[in-house]
Amino acid sequence: MTTLSTPSGRSGPPETPSTPAAPSTPGTASEPAAESEAAAVSGPECGAQADPGERHRLTTLQGLAALSLDAMASVAYGPEAIVLVLAAAGGVGLGHTLPVTLAIAVLLAVLVASYRQVIAAFPDGGGSYAVARAHLGRRTGLVAAASLILDYVLNVAVSVTAGVAALTSAFPGLYEHRLPLCLGVLVLVTGVNLRGIVDSAKAFVVPTAVFVGSILTLIAVGLFRTAPVSTEAAAGHASALGESATTVGALLLLKAFASGCSALTGVEAVANAVPSFRAPAVRRAQRTEVTLGVLLGVMLIGLSVLIGRFHLQPVEGVTVLAQLADASLGHGWGFYVVQFATVVLLALAANTSFGGLPVLMSLLARDNHLPHLFRLKADREVHRHGVAVLAAVAALLLLFSGGDTNTLVPLFAIGVFVGFTVCQTGMVIHWRVRRTGRWRLKAALNGLGAVLTGVSAIVVTATKFTEGAWLIVIALPALVVLFERVHRAYGRIDERIGLGLVPQPPRRERSLVIVPVSHLSRLTCEAVNAAVSLGDEVRAVTVTHPDAEDRAESRALRRDWERWNPGIDLVELHSEHRTIGRPVSEYVRRIHRYHPGTRVTVLIAEVEPERLWQRLLQNQRGAVLAHAVRRDTEAVICRLRFRLTDTEQASKSRNP
User: Fold this and answer.
1) How far apart are CA 69 and CA 204, in angstroms?
2) Residue 160 in contact with residue 185, Cβ under 8 Å?
3) Contacts with 106 (C-beta within 8 Å, 6 or more apart), sequence order
4) Verdict on whether the full-model pTM lies above 0.90
5) Could you tell me where the beta strands, DSSP code E, fall in 497-654?
6) What residues contact 620, with CB distance under 8 A and at least 6 apart?
7) HSE on the CB side for 210, CA within 13 Å?
8) pLDDT for 15-67, tens place per residue?
9) 8: left (phi over 0), alpha (psi -120 to 50) or beta
10) CA–CA separation, 588 vs 578, rounded Å?
């Protein structure tokens, strides 16, 4: 693999490329080595030689808060998705809520066990992408990566809209302001993540604990009740229950299972972000994955039991979780604690994407499938470009949906299931190749998971196609095509610049520096001083136009130039049009034509204003000229920044 790296030692904020190792390939010893290496760093002595960046990485508790919010918060809309489907068959259909949830819990156990193994086998992160790339080929890996990207982006939009839906369930008067509320929450979460994943994890520990505690309390209290304490939340709202039916078909149960599997979103996030954990990263990530699975399974099953116990019916405008809180805790402070905890956690569940997607995009950039800028990290271990792109696309989805969760959930599930299926299939091949202890049992579990998630993907796509799922059907292959085109573009660049080849010995060429000028000033003097230091020969050029005013200015410049007499020729370039870029680029091309061995540098002097807003006062001629020369010639462009404050201070020091 070849990559284009950015120069080291540059000025400005410390921003360096991340360097995750390449995923292992079948038949090599790299994966066992990775596992043994992870075990080797688990001892207490690893803290003595800690990486300076360790303090910006996650502990197990912080990982649970930063990367598991999506999965845990999905209990707010996962059971509701099941109920809404089964409600079409009336009360008989709702009676199957618990069996469907138990089936989902079984799949959850399979997924957690699988991703625990993925973490050990692929400690550099990437999840489904890393597994597919290693065992199913590069193109299948790109399909997995595309599905993960769609999953992460939609997770942000779904989490934010679901959180706002919980808020409007408690305060119906805010319903008309859903979209502004969604965008405000998105801006807040993005800002926190730009400060670093550890800072965001610390901020989310308390809300996560409050949410999990409130849900477990709701379940525990509800199990001791035989009837709802209150139904005030649902009073006055239209029921979404369909007409009673005597039987429930297998297709309806399968559709309910597929819809309820939206509660499994985020299970893979820990495996995607293993490098974000402190050493021993593998062990910490595995503990986080198991803890997540246990908490999620308990909450899903407990809420489903209460749905059946209270004979809950879905109503318009009120979430299922809000009705359960009302029925179990009453319409008092307990109800509002659950709602506020749900609002906060669903809003912050988007943090799972902000923790996982930038790492995935970094891996894709490493493999030349995305621009290399996505590999850059800021000083707080933040892939800021990935964070910014994620926030921008999520904002577009919020605008597209108008802040409605039901518009986004059908889109959400497809990408999730595609990624699950690809990962499970890849792990089956992994066990067949490695043949470690009890590999047949592990392969069977992964195979079962692949079948279940694959069937769910087909069912959701077929049943939700006209409701917006067609968008994912188009977006998924479009992303794969984008990855391929970026990869080919980098391949052509590598070939043209001879990346990886030993270059020819350096040779000296005649150097000519061209300095565009329009008047005499200290800026012109600084530009000429820099030019004579750079090249063997320096020429100043000025562009003149045929109108009388420009001819007068040209004569004045010629007169002043001769009076100054810097020992450099001033060349006048005549142009019929009022442009500066084309005449200078044509002059450079003539030099290349008649003197092909000359290295031409165009030095463009520009004022660096003291205040940012003063950039609006500049005419931007330097940018226009640089663009024209870069587009039309092979000349080197040097843009000299003349800093007003520095120059004034230097002048005062020379003339006290």
Assistant:
1) 9
2) yes
3) none
4) no
5) 510-516, 537-544, 569-574, 598-608, 636-643
6) none
7) 18
8) 434 434 333 333 333 333 333 333 333 333 344 444 555 666 777 777 787 77
9) beta
10) 19
